[in-house]
Design goal:
Largest sheet: 6 strands, antiparallel
Helix content: 25-40%
Order of helices and strands: EEEHHEEHHE
Distance between the termini: 62 Å
Shape: elongated
Structural class: alpha+beta
Radius of gyration: 17 Å
Number of strands: 6
């Protein structure tokens, strides 16, 4: 006997658009002592997916971290950097990923330049798109929620999607 597995499909799964990142205006980077703080705005990306399954948000930031280290290696650096996920907020049309990276002050300029370069990397966009497509087959009633504000903060604070982020870039 053959058994079939059925899964729920989220509304509008067939209409998923490719993620868009405006690296000039949507990627904010600031510094604070020995830390770099970043905010990456991704359009055509429902934050519902990334706020209900934090491992997906962490996966996006892990891809960002991997791309950063590849870029730094190409630039001659041997030190690996680790980017940490802080929170994901947004709504049905966009997600803003917040991240941090502990970096000695003397490397801030180099790291910020590398982050600006990798923002445009196709691999980052593909990773986000892959997570969005895979979420369409998730069997989770939470994905059928009709709320328009989806926020997750790894520290337990919920913020509004258009929270101001100060950039020193």
């Amino acid at each position: 006997m053959v058994s079939a597995v059925t899964t729920k499909r989220r509304r509008n799964c067939d209409a998923i658009l490719s993620a868009e990142i405006d690296c000039e205006n949507g990627h904010k980077i600031s510094t604070d002592m020995d830390k770099i703080l970043g905010s990456l705005l991704v359009k055509n990306c429902s934050s519902r997916i990334f706020s209900t399954d934090i491992s997906l948000s962490e996966g996006v930031i892990a891809k960002l971290s991997s791309l950063l280290n590849e870029q730094l290696f190409r630039n001659g650096s041997k030190d690996e950097q680790n980017i940490s996920f802080l929170k994901a907020i947004g709504n049905e049309t966009h997600t803003r990923f917040y991240y941090s990276c502990i970096v000695n002050k003397e490397y801030h300029t180099e790291i910020k330049a590398a982050l600006r370069t990798i923002c445009k990397d196709k691999g980052l966009h593909d990773t986000i798109d892959e997570y969005q497509r895979s979420s369409c087959n998730e069997d989770s009633s939470i994905l059928d929620s009709s709320s328009d504000d989806y926020s997750h903060d790894s520290f337990g604070n919920t913020k509004q999607p258009d929270e101001e982020f100060k950039s020193d870039s």
